[in-house]
Design brief:
73% helix, 67 residues, elongated, 0% strand, mainly alpha
């Protein structure tokens, strides 16, 4: 189950589409976003470690998103 608040995911869908959103649709997108976010975070941590840092920065995230 996603740790993202359903209300936030619901707002993302409504903002993008302008239509009503079922709870199951918000849950499904939340699960997907969490899975993809984990992949990005893991890659960003690799970049941070490679740079000799223990802190993930916005640049690490940007690099991970490009990969």
């Amino acid at each position: 189950m996603s740790e993202l608040p359903l209300a936030a995911v619901d707002r993302i869908i409504r903002k993008a589409t302008g239509v009503r959103v079922s709870e199951s649709a918000a849950k499904e997108l939340g699960n997907y976003l969490e899975e993809e976010g984990m992949k990005v975070a893991q890659q960003a941590a690799v970049f941070s470690k490679h740079a000799g840092r223990k802190t993930v920065t916005d640049e690490d995230i940007r690099l991970a998103l490009k990969k």
